[in-house]
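pasting input
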Amino acid sequence: MQQKISLVELQHLSKLARLKLTSLEEQTYLPQIESVLEYMDILNETDTTSIEPLTQITGLKNITRNDEIKPSLDRSNALSSASKTTNGFVVVPNTIKK
Amino acid sequence: MLDITTLTISDCHDLLVNKKITAVEIVTSYLDRIRKYDPEIKAFITVTNDLALASARVLDKKIASGQPVGQLAGSVMAVKDIFLTAGIETTSGSQLLKGYIPQYSSTVYQRLLDEDAILVGKTNTDTFAFGGSTENSGYFTTHNPWNTDLVPGGSSGGSAAALSASLCTFSLGTDTGGSIRQPASLCGITGIKPTYGRNSRYGITAMASSFDCPGAFAKNAADLALVTKIMAGADIHDATSSPVTVADYSQELNAQTLSGLKIGLPKEYFGMGIDDEVKQRILDTAEFFKKNGAEIIDISLPNTKLGIAVYYILVPSEISSNMARYDGIRFGQSQKGIDDLLQYYLDTRGEFMEPEIKRRVLIGTYALSSGYYDAYYTKASKVRMIIKNEFIDAYKKVDVILTPVSPTTAWPIGEKSNDPLAMYLSDVFTVCVNVAGLPSIALPCGFDSKNLPIGFQLIGNYFEESKLFSIAHQYQKLTNYHLQAPKI
């Protein structure tokens, strides 16, 4: 049977998903994910050509609220979980190379 | 002498308001018991000892001065550590959120506090609720109070074990694919997964947003009805919470008689690897309902076998999206001393995410990627529609559907932890309820030859929680399985 996922694909996915994997992790996850994906073939036994996909089940539509200003967290409280802050702002690592 | 920790919510409430016991006595009884038994059970990540006692003293003052108290005054609650609790560490069972102190509380937890329930601690869970045994927790594995070599089930295993071991009056969990019903079944207690949208998801770390359902565990269906009535209802902060009126579940506990009740028994739920003893016990339970006047109707839900595949495509897809918010910048743990943003993300998430998070994020990223989207995500979404429609058709013939919850009773710690697919397959009887978004109550109905609890579930039509509580209450008036406690 054709392999569902290759090591190269796994490495590409892990970068897309912003996950650094060790080579031991790659070796562990690759066969595990392969077996899960193989199991999913069971879905191909069912004909779904005339079926609409179900993406939510509540049937609710366009739920809105009034755009009113209400009390909210003060700045220091809102920033209290951030890894690094300065002068009331979150500090992030460089996003543009110098 | 009166053992406070055996009392139900209403018993505790009556004794408290009639000044036979104090809130401090109630809280102290539970804290003593937690100190004695939790080192072995390991249900709690955090015990809120001082806060619980301070809350109890405030409540006692209210009562002494004749002020009105809430419906849950006298109750002590344990809360799964994925519900945000303002000012109290909330880890989601992951090292990623170790030390995270939320600035606000989840809606359903706040509603319970507003009725004077007292928090006694935050309970263990598989990391971000990804799992069915608590073995995926980033901290430790919880032990089943009926046999501490065994798993309690999961992901809400800490809350289930805490209630089963009488370490609280009721507890909170979430059910995305069975994470309330399965540990309830494995620990011999009563648990409800309400209709999707019945309870607000606001302030609960998200797993799969179109599946997640907060709910509760309690000593019996009557307690559970009261807790659910308080938790339920629309919330401005959750656009998927339902505007449907919440019935007074407590007042309607006797509204449903077993006589004339049409119970569907789907044949697909009695194959697929079910243990013989479990199967027999569930069939005996159906027979019990029949003897008490219910009509048992054989039905078929032919696509049940596809539930696991649908679930383990759609849920990881939603997980991969939800987990993107953990960037190590605004909250959560992070790797220090890295100047490059991409490397910061890679290292932070690589270091602090537990293996099951990584597996599910990778599967979800795969299923949503451009080459595979239609083959996996769209296909699974279509089969989701088929499964939902099968249930809707079934409710034209029956009032409720009776099935097993878990194919087996509790299993040894470690038995499935290295085989994710085997672990996923143990969700076979619970996931379709979440795929369709239906309500379901799980309750105990006996024991296997190893004296481990067996549970069954009653799956109702949308927003028919009241009917489920009422049937479960009638069943518990005629049986005593829910009164059995583990010898710890």
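fyi Chain A has three helices and two strands.
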